[in-house]
Amino acid sequence: MNKLCVVGLGYIGLPTAAMFANHGWQVLGVDVNQKAVDMINKGQIHIEEVGLGEMVAKAVKNGSLKASEKVEEADSFIIAVPTPHTDDNTANLKYLIQATNSVLEKVQKGNVVIVESTIPPRTINDVVAPLFEAANWKVGEDIYLAHCPERVLPGRILIELVENNRIVGGINQASTEKAVEVYSTFVKGELLRTSALSAEMSKLMENTYRDVNIALANELVKISEKLGIEALEVIELANQHPRVNLHLPGPGVGGHCLAVDPYFIIEKAPEESQLIANARIINNSMPGFVVDQVGKRVKDRSSKIAVLGLTYKGNIDDVRESPAMEIVEKLLEEGYTLGVNDPHIGQEQVGFKISSFTDAVEDAECILVLTDHNEFKKLDEEVILAKAKRPLVFDTRNCVRISNEKIEYVNFGNLKEKAAIDITIN
Question: Does the structure show a pLDDT above 60 at 335?
């Protein structure tokens, strides 16, 4: 039985480890988070993902998956640690370097080392490979090194790990083929062979494409508000053109991909990436834009705002780079009182109180929807009318369907109807 060591048991590493463990591999998952290690060894999971709990429990029960804080010898290694950006928006590679060094302590001749972490262009060639070479390994001959970026959607990770086409970029052709052998265990999509450098850049461009197009939609919202145009209607009409596919606007861009990956390109070629940089500026401005829109509708800064949703997208528990978190901070800075509800988030994740929907809405003068969880698509309108001080729903995700005409509904399509009035409650 082939042995695999997966370093990093987060939103990508743990599903990857579980997938291999359920397809004939003996898998060791490694993480510095002792709580996560202990939970996994009990057959439990520390993150939310559809079907993952059952898969991990099965693998742990049959002995094909265990977790540890230390790397052990294996036939193949997968590095799936985060690569955050620093305050100046350059890549922080310390976790990748630490993980690579831990693998170096156990790597043997003939092993395959795969980096799944999203990284700036040339990181495999200029950072990872030199670490092995400094330890007297001939990369591409003694050990095989490749970059195989993840490209899965939270909520569908276990499906897309199997079905999606996979980019496999080796430091040389031999490394590419060795990595292809690893993923052919379960991947039903096409295994796209390329160089490490092209694999790095293709992953970044996949997310940059989406970020730039979301920025276009967000800029349309701002223009439409100024000109009194129905932005969402414009998008719907424009998308009737056979070669147009405008994205939807939102309160900003979050997650560890779209909000981060474009910076890895900008870092390496700042003068040549003007469009990408401007898209980042536009998307980063949306939390402030949302707060400004709230202020146009709720003049009294001592008012209560009900915030629905903290994660960066619906039906997940991930708040990384979430624009909702920034909006909460800005609202508090403005002086508003907040009631926050997110059925997918625990208080320990965010450091402040998570209320029930009823408690969040009580006495609120605006119900601000920031995440398109399924739970928010049909709100309890009776609770809103009975508990809210003002039945106003501001839906930044265009996901709520309101049926009662007594509830005022605003989204990015009708910002021209500002209803910017002061309401005095006797």
Answer: yes
Residue with tokens 């509708």: 297
421 found inside a domain: no
Average pLDDT over residues 118-123: 96
Please state the pTM of the whole predicted model: 0.89
Is 183 within a domain?
Answer: yes
How many domains does the chain fold into? 3
Domain that includes residue 266, residue range? 203-284
**212 in the same domain as 176:** no
Query: Distance between CA 146 and CA 101 in Å, rounded?
Result: 16
Roughly what angle, to the nearest 10 degrees, separates helices 286-297 and 274-284?
A: 30
* Residue owning tokens 């003694």: 142
First to last CA, the chain: 74
**Annotated catalytic sites, by residue?**
203, 257
Q: What pLDDT, in 10s, does the model give residues 3-45?
A: 999 999 999 999 999 999 999 999 999 999 999 999 999 999 9
Residue 425 lies in a domain: no
Residue 381 burial by Cβ neighbours in a 10 Å radius (0-12, 13-18, 19+): middle
> In whole angstroms, how far apart are CA 422 and each of 288, 301, 332, 334?
21, 11, 20, 17
pLDDT of residue 426: 38
* 120/99 Cα distance (integer angstroms): 17
Closest C-alpha to 48, from 20, 11, 18, 17: 11
- Per-residue model confidence as pLDDT tens digits over 268-295: 999 999 999 999 999 999 999 999 999 9
